[in-house]
Design a protein that fits this description.
688 residues; alpha/beta; 5-stranded mixed sheet; 5-stranded parallel sheet; 17 helices; 31% helix; globular
């Protein structure tokens, strides 16, 4: 499910292992979150810049099946966005992120096209024109920000397209198909049991896990690039009413396994204080905050959309400075604060803690650090206080220490807004508040199978549905900065207090124990280098599925090979290992909302564990280039550390001034060079 970076990596690795692959993508092009939206997402004044899906904690999970929905913008990109990781580090191990590799792929793509068409004279002329256009496009990209150390988002999308072209992955993709729901289908003999509730029964299957009934429907793609989606209705019919069949226009298919690659950057995370302020605004309360409330998900630049309108109104009032607060001092918050500082008179960058973290200044030196936000009302923005020693107030329940500048709830005993004290300074007048506070994991199409509690993704186990209903769906609206923007360590106040019927934790953030390897969720970890990580996950999934025959002829044998120690030898062993890892996080004081948070060196160690398990499993596809030895070369972790240090030392201009180490860069370029040499040799031998 999904043709972003995770879906493409999964398609490649699964096909290499000999599996039959189908990729459903609701958009009209690949790229996932890197396929930028042409929509400005202006939600109107009453909503304060937030649409219903952002302002309502449960709106995403409670959407009815088959019902018409408002367009939902999937991408969070804005024009000036650049990566916060070096380009060489970002690339897949199987495909270097270099101009030479991408240029070679473009050339090969044109060669394949000529071969398929028989190279007729007219088509050759068209190919030549296409070739010239492709060269010009690459030259234009090279002259922009893109081929620099930290590229713009346009080049990342281009890289993913080239990756797909290099390995001919679009043959597996069905564009314009939206997932409605997916449910397990258990064998009539009881095989593959142990999953969540709600599964159907079918004839006997030799698979040691349930198969998956997948229901999809066609989508109308709204916007120039097709990143907002509406259910498709044929021209001859009208949109379904509330009484229409929920399965109208849907297609149902059954698959042996399901790999979920739908991402987790589409449902914004907002603290309760922001949600309360938005409710007051919609109710037209006299206590409502008069300014704009916006999540970074809807930010499209300082000069467009509701933010531009809010600042323009302030300027029209005359002799009043424009002030914008950005809540969340991670990479996204810093970038937005810097950009907004070019048009606003002052920018207040808010974080739960500034200890040991420098605040960027902006080109006009007008960015100021602030503590976390505790309330927004008619008097302005109220910030949390600090004691004389610089620590956070112990009696203020809003500080959660995750570095994103927001807490788990509004302070229950906040003094009157008209009263100031050392702990609660007077409110400040602000024209707009932008929340760069991350995202919530959300799997509404897997309801009854996947649960999300305090932003930890879990397998919904026996009795899980009732438990979630009792606890208000348990979807984790209280916290969790899904995009890794938080810089603190978390206070770990909320623990995994599980009852016997509670959902199960995932094994290695990837597999649901009750479904063995039949259901996998790629790309959940954050504060990571994403492309190599999802590639390692995909390799393990492909090899684990290869243990059981996937063709109809082989299926009758019902063979299952013995699994080595690096990989759980049964669903029960997988569940036990997942629970043991969860208990270990508890003992370490890791807050549940930080379950999938990694950082360095944790995520490099995580990739090594995945590769250990994948290599030990054997069977199905192996390394296919000299650079693709599956183990991450040491230069990657060294480059990550150097890049992190550069950002800490110069938050304003690290992308252009970072010293990644000459020797480290040489090693990265040598690896890319080995791939290029292999690729050219393979082409000469006619294997391309």
């Amino acid at each position: 499910m999904g043709a972003g970076s995770s879906g493409l990596a999964a398609a490649r690795e699964l096909s290499l292992a000999g599996h039959e692959v189908t990729v459903f993508e609701r958009g009209k092009r690949l790229g996932g979150l890197w396929a930028s939206s042409g929509l400005e997402a202006e939600e109107g004044e009453e909503g304060g810049g937030l649409d219903d899906s952002e302002a309502s904690p449960a709106s995403s999970s409670s959407s009815s099946r088959g019902a018409a929905r408002a367009p939902r913008v999937h991408s969070s990109l804005y024009p000036s966005l650049r990566t916060n990781l070096p380009r060489l580090l970002m690339g897949f191990t199987s495909y270097p992120f270099t101009r030479e590799a991408m240029d070679l792929t473009e050339e090969e793509k044109r060669r394949r096209a000529r071969r398929r068409t028989g190279a007729e004279e007219e088509e050759e002329e068209e190919e030549e024109e296409e070739e010239e256009e492709g060269k010009n496009e690459l030259e234009n990209l090279e002259n922009d920000l893109d081929f620099k150390t930290y590229p713009g988002h346009e080049l990342v999308l281009r890289y993913l397209r080239c990756y797909s072209d290099e390995f001919d992955l679009e043959q597996f993709v069905r564009y314009g198909r939206e997932l409605v729901r997916a449910s397990p289908v258990f064998s009539s003999t009881g095989g593959g049991g142990g999953g969540g509730g709600g599964g159907a029964r079918e004839e006997e299957s030799p698979l040691p896990w349930p198969r998956w009934r997948v229901v999809t429907r066609a989508t109308v793609l709204a916007g120039e690039t097709g990143d907002a989606f509406l259910p498709f209705h044929p021209p001859s019919s009208s949109p379904p009413s509330s009484s229409s069949s929920p399965d109208e226009g849907c297609v149902e298919e059954v698959f042996d396994a399901l790999v979920c690659c739908s991402g987790h950057f589409a449902r914004p995370r907002l603290p309760p204080s922001a949600l309360a302020a938005t409710r007051r605004k919609r109710q037209k309360s006299p206590l409502a905050f008069p300014g704009l409330i916006l999540h970074a998900h809807s930010y499209r630049g300082p000069g467009v959309g509701p933010l531009a309108k809010a600042l323009e109104r302030r300027r029209e009032e005359g002799n009043r400075e424009t002030v914008v607060a950005v809540v969340g001092a991670g990479p996204s918050g810093e970038d937005i604060a810097r950009e907004v500082s070019g048009v606003a008179d002052r920018v207040l960058l808010c974080s739960a803690s500034w200890e040991g973290v420098p605040c960027p200044k902006g080109a006009k030196q007008n960015i100021e650090p602030r503590p976390f936000v505790v309330r927004l009302d008619a008097l302005g923005v109220h910030f949390g206080g600090r004691d004389e020693g610089g620590g956070e107030e112990k009696d203020n329940t809003t500080g959660d220490g995750d570095g994103d500048g927001v807490g788990d709830g509004e302070a229950p005993s906040h003094p009157s807004p008209s009263v100031s004290s050392p702990s609660f300074p007077p409110p400040e007048r602000v024209d707009a508040v932008i929340y760069a506070t991350g995202y919530l994991y959300d799997f509404p199409e897997l309801s009854g199978t996947i649960a999300v509690e305090d932003n930890e993704v879990l397998q919904a186990g026996g009795g899980a549905a009732a438990a979630r209903k009792e606890e208000g769906e348990g979807d984790g609206d209280g916290g969790g900065d899904g995009d890794g923007d938080g810089d603190g360590d978390g206070d770990g106040e909320q623990r995994r207090r599980r009852r016997p019927a509670q959902p199960l934790p995932l094994w290695e953030h990837l597999f649901c124990p009750g479904f063995s390897v039949g259901l996998s969720l790629l790309g959940l970890p954050f504060k990571v280098v994403p492309f190599p990580l999802v590639e390692a996950q995909a390799r393990l999934v492909a090899r684990a599925l290869a243990l059981v025959p996937s063709t109809q002829e082989q299926r009758g044998e019902g063979r299952e090979e013995e699994r080595p120690a690096a990989f759980p030898q049964s669903a029960q062993a997988m569940a036990a290992a997942a629970l043991a890892a969860s208990r270990e996080r508890d003992e370490q004081g890791v807050a549940r909302r930080h379950t999938h948070r990694m950082g360095c060196p944790s995520h490099f160690e995580y990739i090594e564990r995945l590769i250990d398990a994948a290599l030990d499993l054997g069977g199905g596809g192996g390394p296919s280039s000299p650079s693709e030895n599956w183990r991450l070369a040491p230069w990657r972790q060294s480059m990550y550390i150097r890049a992190s240090e550069a950002r800490r030392q110069d938050a304003d201009s690290y992308r252009d001034t970072a010293d990644l180490g000459e020797e480290i860069i040489k090693q990265a370029e040598a690896e890319a060079g080995a791939w290029l040499a292999w690729r050219k040799k393979r082409r000469r031998e006619g294997e391309g």
